[in-house]
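Session log. Operator J.P. requested a structure for one protein chain; no other inputs attached. Running the standard single-chain path with token output.
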Amino acid sequence: MDDVDTLESINGFYSRVRWNNQFKQLTIVPKHLQTVFDGRKTVLEKYQDIAGRSNGIDESKSLVKSENDHQNMLSQVFGQDSASHSVLQRQEQLLSQRPAWHAPWKLIRVINGHVGWVRCLKVDPVDNEWFATGSNDTTVKIWDLASGKLKLTLAGHVMTVRDVAISQRHPYLFSASEDKMVKCWDLEKNQIIRDYHGHLSGVHTVDIHPTLDLIASAGRDGVVKLWDIRSRTAVMTLIGHKSPITKVHCLPVNPQVVSSSTDATVRLWDVTAGKSYKILTHHKRSVRDFSLHPSEFSMVSACTDDIRSWKLPEGALLTNFASESTGIINTLSVNQDDVLFAGGDDGMLSFYDYKSGHKYQTMATQEVPGSLESERAILTSAFDRTGLRLITGEADKSIKVWKQIPHSTPETHPGLPWAPSISAQRF
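Structure written below.
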């Protein structure tokens, strides 16, 4: 008898499994058939259905499942509400989000001293007391940040100085020039102590690794070179870009090197493997500049009429900025208050809320009297260490300092209207 009972229980279990596999979908009656069945019910049957639901009967055991149960099943399968995939609902969420208000900016000082375009600019990363600029006049000048007075002129290059980098750990300043040279300046002696030879053409950008004794340089020859600071030897050459490189930046963690190029790509480099592990190909034109957020592990890059922010280290797209009519963008800078500045080749200054991509202020720079209107272009920019002052280097040979208007409020300075499109959503 025990064997018979065991066989019957096995057959019953097998039958239930087969029925579950083949006929489970029949437990959900289609909506058009359910309408027919409901129409044939008597008044008493309809009353019993209503009474059963009000008494708390578990509908999951009933033959017919409601639409809510079907929706819950979808949410369990996909891990989220399937309605969230609706484009209309995403648009509603974007409209309900409000960008943070930022005070507008105004010009407070114009500094003259260079006799050529001001091509690069860096602020002292240690004491925030001075900043350095490089120019077409082949010199690097050191300026006092508080007063705007010239402190020092470093002359040594024979062609345009395209970029400068200031070390946090050493009293060194590095300059890159179109004369194919990277020079190391000792700021205690105010003289050149090392030259780095190896590039086949003009060097457009240089940066210092935050934790290693390395510098990265790149330029017109389309390769990124990593140099040992003390021995002056090129320890690695990163090959991949198809056109001149416009900007290179080093990070203490992966990606340790990021570069942008006129081939419309941004590359995140794996220094250990010596190759790029991620290529950002979303831009359609030359990427002239990118900037890293000072407190969030993300970056923003720009080409003509297109600014986008990316999540690091994987390089996932975060935000499309409202930049359709910005024109050619030469420089980007971000401060700790989530203010993004974009400087245009037509002299336009654009200020954005970094998180939402909303452009809240735009204005034209004021060219120096006596300069041509065609020289009204912003070539470089940087926030000071506090993020309260913005410094720009321009094609009219001047350096301009900007700050936020004091005592401004959302009522007195509301800024440009917030009119988002779904393409600008931050994912």
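Operator note: Helices lie at 2-23, 31-40, 43-54, 67-78, 87-96.
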